[in-house]
Amino acid sequence: MAQLAANGEEPEILFWVGCAGAFDDRYKRVTRAFVQILEHVGIKYAVLGTEESCTGDPAKRAGNEFLFQMQAISNIEVLNAYNVKKIVTACPHCFNTLKNEYPDLGGVYEVIHHSTFLQQLINEGKVRVAGGEEFKGRRITFHDSCYLGRANDIYEAPRDVLAVLDADLVEMKRSRANGLCCGAGGAQMFKEPEPGKKDVNIERTEEALATLGNDNSIIATACPFCMVMMTDGVKIKEQEEKVQVFDIAELIAQAEGLGKV
Amino acid sequence: MIGIENIVFLLVAVLGIGLFIWQVRKIRKNVLLGRDTELLDNPSERMNKMLLVAFGQQKMFKRPLAAVLHLFVYVGFIVINIEVLEILIDGIFGTHRVLGFVGPLYSGLMAINEILAALVIIACAIFLWRRNVTKLPRLWNGVEMRAWPKLDANVILITEIVLMLALFVFNIADMKRVLLAGGEVVGAYPVSHLFVDAFGNDPGQLYVIAKIGWWFHILGILAFLNYLPSSKHFHIIMAFPNVYYSKLLPKGKFTTNPAITHEIKAMLDPSYQPPAPKTDAEGNPVIERFGAKDVEDLTWKQLMDAYTCTECGRCTSVCPANITGKLLSPRKIIMDTRDRMEEKGEHPAIFAPNHYKELGVERVAVTEEKTLLRGYITPEELWACTTCNACTESCPVNIDQLSTIMDLRRYLVLEESAAPASLNAMFTNIENNGAPWAFSPSDRFNWADELYVPVNS
Fold it and tell me: Which residue in B412, B430, B443, B446 has the most chain A C-beta atoms within 10 A of its own C-beta, making it the best mutation to test that interface?
């Protein structure tokens, strides 16, 4: 972003990478897959790079409003300094915070989650999913992220994106508005769960596995936290040979022939 | 013809309604313990929501069987109220079926009434069965489902059955009496018709039975009216305003505390002038707690939520924390709020919260503190929430359980610094590294190092 700004240019979109997208080894692959799609369709984009900082979402959900606002106010300063208008992010938590909670603090942007963005690219014919890996006949189930679904009523965009893969899309019993959380929201990602009889991600993974039922199938996610929780769940259930967890951007990148990421 | 009976009736009716208003004022006072919040925007959207969700029962239909049974009772309640109006007029002025002049419309109304009353009895019987025999988990399990909530539910269902039976007794005896006298029956009574001979052929006896049925029905209604404020059944009134004032914003948007914004801005820019703090009646500045420790720290809407809850347990049954055996139950948060409100403020005629607070709290280690936090709700419950909004989505009357959980969490963090150690570590990481994990901010762009971007893109 700094380079573009130095050249007096403005990007069409700012890609907000998010902490998981920048630091988590697994989710870095999603970041790269999404960037490859951006490059592939030739859209002018920018990232903040080292100028990006946590949106403050985990602090806010954990009750630390003070820390959240500190983060938000300093991020808004950076974003406004670059005159950012449109933000795309692959993280529903960043998405929700930027879209819904930054305006009160002076940060007003058009914020789009990558599921909606990919849906638009497909609708515009910019992504045709040709020349890459075939998903025909493979079973895919989409796990709704709470902060995408119930929090922001985005249920169809990720499903529309998956629909172009021509795979066998199956729904879990608890899906869309009735979807079950992966267990990581509300800052649970960063702490041990309270005593109980089961971990939430195991409950959800069992449901996904029961829905998929056969080998060589995929749990699709659209959230870095869901990705971690479902991947861990599949590992704990010792099904990682049979069931893989992918972000929708990775699946599109693979189908588009942008290489295994 | 107005006689002594009518005067007695008028007195009883005035007394019953007066007592009810007195109780409602207590509840209003309790709700107004809460902080102010502006919820008067978008009246047309709010009205639509109220028509759909409260009047139209929209969210009930996620569970079709319960929805249909509840619909019988709900429509029965609304339609039978028209007959109650007639009863009031008849009772005061000594008339007999005063609305009968509308002819066929009246017949239709009475017929629908009778069918609905029969359906109400059937639905309530099934509800009793589900609660007490099959013990539907969401109605039976949970530490908050102590003696009183279970008794309350059964009292409501049995009362409704008895009231409907009294209505039938009156209709049957009244119809038979008119028939014996060779008169024309005003209205149509398809159900009572089946039992028309149930009370014999003695006109005097029938007169007494009809009177007993009539008086029992109306006295029962007045008594039930005064039971409502002590009961979860108060939802029949509160559902409407509660949905009207429900959250119109995306569920993911949590409240932002402007006091904190001013504090941060003043910190970053010494010349920043925060607005003058709110003052009380004597002009002293009001220092509000960050977050909520007790009921007065919640908004009036959050307190209204507590009076709207029907304890149906939909929220708890979809809560990921509760499903996996954690202590958190969103329903308990709401029920605790009501109990604490009535402990601290006023309590209606029948219900006295202290009588059962100690029961059934084995796993919830509450303390003796006289506050909502810790006295009723423990940090362990609050920290189990994933903020997934399944509870708010499931609530048929748009209660916002999550906002109360969040405000209690905020108090723990902002006023007591009492977050779990791992969350404190996460806060420190964000403060120092700008990320919830302990990575160096200078490595934030490293993901691009391994990026292969096709040249011919």
Answer: B430
